[in-house]
C-alpha cells in the first residue's frame, strides 16, 4: 500500500513540475496569409478550431471541413466574429464516408481556385465501422485523410509552394503496423474495451507518420511539402468515448495536471504550416515545434510503401 501511495505521490509531483517548468513553445512567425486558402479538417472544436482561428487572424481564407453542419456553421460564425475575417466558411466533410470525401473534394475544387495548406487534423477514438465497412478509427484517422489528400494533390501542386500537415500523436510510438491491424480495426465495434480503442488509435497515428514519410517521397520536386506532428497533451473532446472507470480516472488526472489548452495544442501545427525554411524536412515528424526522430518502424521505406498500396486499395483508388 505504501509503495502504491509513493508511486502516486511521485506521479503527482512529476505532473506538477511538468506543468510549472515545461512551457510549450508559442509560434511567433509573422507570416501573412492574405490570398491563401487553408482547409482544416475537424476545425470546429479543440486543436482544429484554435488552428483555424490562427490562420484566420493571419488573413487566410479558411475552410472548416467538419462533419456536423450545425456545429461547423456555428464555429465558422464564431471565428468570423472573433477574428474579423469574413472568409471563414464551413464545408461538410465526413471522413467516415468515402463517398462524402469524394463529394467534398469535388465541391471544393469547383468552388475554390486555391489550396495552399491542407491540415489533416480531425480524428477520433470511437468504436464502430465507417460507411465503407472499415474500423472507424482506421477509417477516419488514416484512410479518410489519405483519400482526401490524394484527391486534392493536383490543386496543391498548382498552388505550390504548399503544404500538407498531418496531425498525429506521440501515441504513434506505441503503435505497430503488421497489416493484421487492418483486420483488428475491422473487429472494433460498439462495446470494444478502452484498451482496444487505444491500440487502434495508436496504430492509426503511426499510419499518419508513415503516410507523411511516403507522401514526401512522392512529392519530391513538386514544392509541395508535408509534415506530421504531435500537438502535446491537450484538453479536448477526443476522449469522449472512453468509458471504463479506471481510464476515466487516468484521463481526468492527466487533463487536470498535465494537459494544456487547444491554443497551446495548435502551436506545432502552426509551426509546420508556416515556419520558413523547413522544406528540406518534408516527411519528418515534429513535437513542441521541434524535429523529432521517430522509431525505425515509423520511417521504414518498405512499410510506408506497403501501407500506401494497402490504403489505395482500401479507398478504391486502384
Ligand atoms: N488532445 C490531445 O491530447 C491530443 C494528443 C495527441 C494528438 N491529438 C490529435 O490532435 C487532433 C485534434 O484532436 P483534438 O484533441 O482537438 O480532439 P477533438 O475531438 O476536439 O477534435 C477532433 C475533430 O475531429 C472531428 N471529426 C471526428 N470524426 C470526424 C469525421 N468522421 N469526419 C470529420 N471530422 C471528424 C471532430 O468533429 C472534431 O472536430 C487529432 O488528430 C488527435 O489525434 C490530440
UniProtKB/TrEMBL annotation:
Segments traversing the membrane: none
Keywords, in A-Z order: Oxidoreductase
Record's keyword annotation contains Metal-binding: no
Gene Ontology MF terms in the entry: oxidoreductase activity
Record keyword Oxidoreductase present: yes
Cross-referenced Gene3D superfamilies: NAD(P)-binding Rossmann-like Domain (3.40.50.720)
Similarity-based family: Belongs to the short-chain dehydrogenases/reductases (SDR) family.
Name of the protein in its database record: Dehydrogenase/reductase SDR family member 13-like
Lineage: Eukaryota, Metazoa, Chordata, Craniata, Vertebrata
Amino acid at each position: 500500500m505504501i509503495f502504491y501511495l509513493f508511486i502516486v505521490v511521485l506521479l503527482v509531483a512529476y505532473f506538477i513540475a511538468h506543468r510549472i517548468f515545461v512551457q510549450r513553445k508559442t509560434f511567433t512567425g509573422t507570416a501573412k496569409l492574405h490570398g491563401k486558402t487553408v482547409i482544416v479538417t475537424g476545425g470546429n472544436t479543440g486543436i482544429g478550431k484554435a488552428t483555424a482561428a490562427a490562420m484566420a487572424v493571419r488573413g487566410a481564407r479558411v475552410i472548416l471541413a467538419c462533419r456536423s453542419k450545425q456545429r461547423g456553421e456555428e464555429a465558422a460564425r464564431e471565428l468570423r466574429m472573433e477574428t474579423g475575417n469574413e472568409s471563414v466558411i464551413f464545408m461538410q466533410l465526413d471522413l467516415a464516408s468515402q463517398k462524402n470525401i469524394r463529394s467534398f473534394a469535388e465541391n471544393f475544387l469547383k468552388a475554390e481556385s486555391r489550396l495552399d495548406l491542407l491540415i489533416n487534423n480531425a480524428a477520433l477514438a470511437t468504436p464502430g465501422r465507417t460507411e465503407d465497412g472499415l474500423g472507424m478509427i482506421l477509417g477516419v484517422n488514416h484512410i479518410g485523410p489519405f483519400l482526401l489528400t490524394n484527391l486534392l494533390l493536383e490543386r496543391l501542386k498548382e498552388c505550390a509552394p504548399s503544404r500538407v500537415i498531418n496531425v498525429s500523436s506521440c501515441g504513434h510510438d506505441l503503435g505497430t503496423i503488421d497489416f493484421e491491424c487492418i483486420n483488428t480495426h475491422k473487429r472494433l465495434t460498439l462495446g470494444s474495451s478502452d484498451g482496444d480503442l487505444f491500440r487502434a488509435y495508436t496504430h492509426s497515428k503511426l499510419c499518419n507518420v508513415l503516410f507523411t514519410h511516403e507522401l514526401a517521397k512522392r512529392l519530391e520536386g513538386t514544392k509541395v511539402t508535408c509534415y506530421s506532428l504531435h500537438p502535446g497533451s491537450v484538453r479536448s473532446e477526443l476522449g469522449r468515448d472512453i468509458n471504463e472507470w479506471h481510464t476515466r480516472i487516468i484521463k481526468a488526472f492527466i487533463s487536470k495536471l498535465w494537459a494544456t489548452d487547444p491554443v497551446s495544442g495548435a502551436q506545432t501545427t502552426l509551426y509546420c504550416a508556416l515556419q520558413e525554411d523547413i522544406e528540406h524536412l518534408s516527411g519528418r515528424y515534429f513535437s513542441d515545434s521541434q524535429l523529432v526522430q521517430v522509431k525505425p518502424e515509423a520511417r521504414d521505406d518498405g512499410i510506408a510503401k506497403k501501407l500506401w498500396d494497402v490504403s489505395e486499395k482500401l479507398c478504391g483508388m486502384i
